[in-house]
Amino acid sequence: MIGEMTPETATKDAMTANDDCLRQLIDQAKQQQMFLEMFVRSWVDDYRCGGGTVHCGKGCRNCCSLAVHTGFAEALAVARQLSVEQGMKVADYAVKLRDLARGVSELPHYLRLHRDEMGFCPLLNEEGACGVYPVRPLTCRSLISTRESVWCGADFTKVAAAERDAFLAALDRKVVSFPSHYVAVLQESGKELEEAGAQLMRSLLGFALYGNLGVLAHLCLHHDLAGAALEGRDRAVSVIAQAGFDHPLLLTVS
Ligand code: SF4
């Protein structure tokens, strides 16, 4: 009979709906990244025209030693681009970070450990460039530096007081997210876009996931976190816990 629902067509329809959910999330993330990219370019042009200096450029990579946290859709888009070799590097990174974060409960401690022990992002390639540049997340795109790159990886607890004071005094307070040297409005814009991504995930799947890029990408690649997310919050939480990544500084489910 024409139009009769069989188990096969029901399964196919469910798979199509699932694919559509993930596609919507990734499409929105890509649009947001393009929007932020245009905003960043236009802001930097204006700032330079007004006499300001932006130090980000090709070969500059010190910010890639910071912990990168992102929404689920952006991490899934990254995971889907990775080669086998990149996937292995991401897995090594995630497992090392998981073990390092055990017993750590304070964010400053986590960030310091990450900077000191984890080295560069596993997606940084041998030429010192981003290995996933076209799909790099909002948080990477929004980090625009008004000071030399050496400050992007600096540990201020190890900087002499006089040097730190000189750094702070030279910041352009009209534009930076003081006391950092990164442009505030671009970081805020990135955060707003991330929140819009989280809202779409909540409306489609009933919950949102946010966390460390390497950890999320690893879970998508090697533990089918995307498939689990489509089954609902409880299933996603269970997959995260089984893999040992149920740590609030690594991942949050909201
Ligand atoms: S994703 Fe790319 S830009 Fe972002 S930290 Fe990693 S290597 Fe750097």
- What is the C-alpha radius of gyration, as a whole number of Å? 20 Å
**Average pLDDT score:** 93
List the ligand species: iron/sulfur cluster
Count of the separate structural domains: 1
Alpha-beta classification: mainly alpha
| Large-scale geometry | globular
Question: How large is the count of helical segments?
Answer: 10
* Stretches with pLDDT under 50, minimum 5 residues: none
Q: Kindly state the number of beta strands.
A: 3
Distance between the termini: 44 Å
* Element pattern in H and E: HEHHHHHHEHHHE
* Largest sheet report: 3 strands, antiparallel
- The helix content is 55-70%
Percent of sequence in beta strands? under 5%
Strands in their spatial order, largest beta sheet:
1-2-3
What does this protein look like?
With 254 residues, the chain is mainly alpha-helical. The chain has one domain (16-253). 56% of the residues lie in helices and 4% in strands. It has helices at residues 7-49, 72-79, 84-101, 107-117, 138-141, 161-169, 184-205, 213-223, 225-231, 233-242; strands at 69-71, 209-212, 251-253. Helix 1 (7-49) packs antiparallel against helix 7 and helix 9 (225-231) runs antiparallel to helix 10. 33% of the residues are buried. Iron/sulfur cluster (SF4) binds at residues 64, 68, 121, 123-124, 130, 132, 136, 140.
